Amino acid sequence: MLEKVILDEDSIRRALTRIAHEIVERNHGCDGIVFIGLHTRGVPLARRIATNIKGFEQTEIPVGFLDISLYRDDLPFLGVQPLPRPTDIPTDITGKCVILVDDVLYTGRSIRAAMDAVIDFGRPRSIQLVVLVDRGHREMPIRADYVGKNMPTSRDEEVEVRLKETDGRDEVVIVKGAGERQFIGRE
């Protein structure tokens, strides 16, 4: 299988910095914002964006993490048991702007599951979505509010996000010839 790097470490850093500025601008500041990263790679991405915002706004934004595995609608079709991971929502989200953070947006099913999970924790004023890569092929009417890179792909390609916190290096690659694979907790 062939890999092609579409985002390197510097490109990821620049994308997350741009997204941090877009979030503050769109929300007219940082008041009432809560980041919730989706396991696995959405969690470090949420933390990095919050750190960027703290750097130029001097405001600490709460960052939580969410396990969506039990909310997925494809578990019966995959025939696998999910491995639950911890969820930690650090503050009451009722009336807040919840910003979900994930690495790759594909079919939209993971984000639908995440929204269902968030609603179990309270009634946010709004839910926004950050993704590092939007690869297309939506099956749900879901779109990201903030995108690091739009990368149209074919279904026989896989987008792999590798982050220092989880994989030892920062890069996003397209793996050609990977075939259509299914992952619990990933799109």
Strand order of the largest sheet: 3-2-4-5-6
How many helical elements? 5
| Rg measurement, Å | 16 Å
* Major β-sheet annotation: 5 strands, parallel
What overall geometry do the principal axes of the alpha carbons give?
Answer: globular
Give an overview in words:
With 187 residues, the chain is α/β, with parallel strands linked by helices. The chain has a domain at 16-69 and 91-155: 3-Layer(aba) Sandwich (Rossmann fold). Helices cover 28% and strands 27% of the residues. The chain contains five helices and eight strands. The strands form two sheets. The protein has a five-stranded parallel sheet with strand order 3-2-4-5-6, with helices on both faces. A three-stranded antiparallel sheet has the order 1-8-7. The longest helix is centred in the N-terminal third of the chain and has 18 residues, at 9-26. The protein is globular.
Write a concise synopsis of the structure shown.
Helices cover 28% and strands 27% of the residues. With 187 residues, the protein is of the alpha/beta class.
Which keywords apply here?
187 residues, alpha/beta, Rossmann fold, five-stranded parallel β-sheet, three-stranded antiparallel β-sheet, 5 helices
Secondary-structure blueprint:
Elements: E1 2-7, H1 9-26, E2 33-38, H2 42-57, E3 63-66, H3 75-78, E4 97-105, H4 109-119, E5 126-134, E6 146-150, E7 157-162, H5 164-167, E8 171-176
Helix pairs in contact: 1-2
